Amino acid sequence: MYEEILDVAEELFMKQGYSDTSTRQIAKILGITQPNIYYHFKNKETIYYQVMRRLSNEVGKNLTELSAKATSFEEKILAMAFYLQQRHPFSLFMMMHDIQHTLNSETAEKMFTLWSDSYKKPFLDVFANEKQIRISVDSEFAVRQLFILISAYLDSPEERRKENLKQSVQLFFYGVLN
Amino acid sequence: MYEEILDVAEELFMKQGYSDTSTRQIAKILGITQPNIYYHFKNKETIYYQVMRRLSNEVGKNLTELSAKATSFEEKILAMAFYLQQRHPFSLFMMMHDIQHTLNSETAEKMFTLWSDSYKKPFLDVFANEKQIRISVDSEFAVRQLFILISAYLDSPEERRKENLKQSVQLFFYGVLN
DNA sequence: GTCTATACCCAGATAGAC
DNA sequence: GTCTATCTGGGTATAGAC
């Protein structure tokens, strides 16, 4: 049951965010009672943390794998962006907001560490090996910018999600001005 | 009282988002009772809409003014971005999420129209008059990308907010690659 | 492990007195 | 216009039986 709860919770947290997802709702989908969840988890916050821990592990592994497979800088970044979009159909901004404003600060800090290691680091590694980057561009900053852009296309509902993300990343590569 | 309620509601909606702001909280700050609010507004959703209507009007006017004052493309865009950052200390993403997932679809549509007219249009006008934009770049798309970036620096808590936003916009102008 | 029952709190909204 | 009282419904969490 433990893993099933995490499965359902992951989906709902992704779609609705932390506060708009209730333990009742999770229980209902699983066909169990709401208090039952409290046999498996101390409280709602630890469910959230465990969901994110599991997800981060998976994402970190897959991002690193993908970056090894592709050859050029642009291909690596695009492949990683597409993966995040497909695995993560929700806004990272919502997540960040939840983390900062709803969870207690101890949990928040642990979640930020998860993100740095699993999401940010694979991208930073790719940037570190690329020679064609403009000298005035700071890699840390650029990776953060890239995440902002990718995040915006995670919960976009339309059919053209993937092409939009591609167009966005290309704009990120080459800018708007001549 | 009507305007006072909107003042307080604006601040709270900005900081906390729609669902995490309660009518009780608004009332308490104003020193009135919670049901009193329902004399002035039909329900919570109309408060949100009126807050956004008032804000959009102001923002639309000021963005247009600012774009007229500055001379170069880069200066115009930066001035408008700084204004949004200073007037809007909250995440537009949170707002978009609230609009799409919490409000009823009729209200959502009206709010989207507000945004198109007051926020997007002034930027589109600036892009329309600029000759240095790369031919493969679509203005609509670029403006949306710019909003994504600006939004990310609205609720950033740090001291370096303004410099970060500037750096971000510059990356948007020139890209990461040579 | 899963259940029922329930405590407690907070939300949005309405009725009706003043 | 603002109040008190209250309805209804939702939330997290705990106690204790099976």
Task: Write up what this structure looks like.
The structure is a homodimer of 178-residue chains. Chain A has 178 residues and is mainly α. Helices cover 73% and strands 0% of the residues of chain A. Chain A has 9 helices and no strands. Chain A has helices at 2-16, 23-30, 37-40, 44-69, 73-87, 92-101, 105-128, 139-152, 161-174. Chain A starts with a helix and ends with a helix. The model of chain A has no long low-confidence stretch (mean pLDDT 93). The structure holds a DNA duplex (18 and 18 nucleotides).
Shape of chain A: elongated
Fraction of helical residues of chain A: over 70%
The whole-number mean of residue pLDDT values of chain A reads: 93
Question: Multimeric state of these chains?
Answer: homodimer
H/E series of chain A, N to C?
HHHHHHHHH
Total strands of chain A: the figure is: 0
Number of helices of chain A: 9
Largest interface comes to: A-B, 33 and 33 residues
State the low-pLDDT regions of chain A, or none: none
Computed structural class of chain A: mainly alpha
The radius of gyration over CA of chain A amounts to 18 Å
Task: Indicate the proportion of strand residues of chain A.
Answer: under 5%
End-to-end C-alpha gap of chain A:
57 Å
For the biggest sheet of chain A, the summary is: none
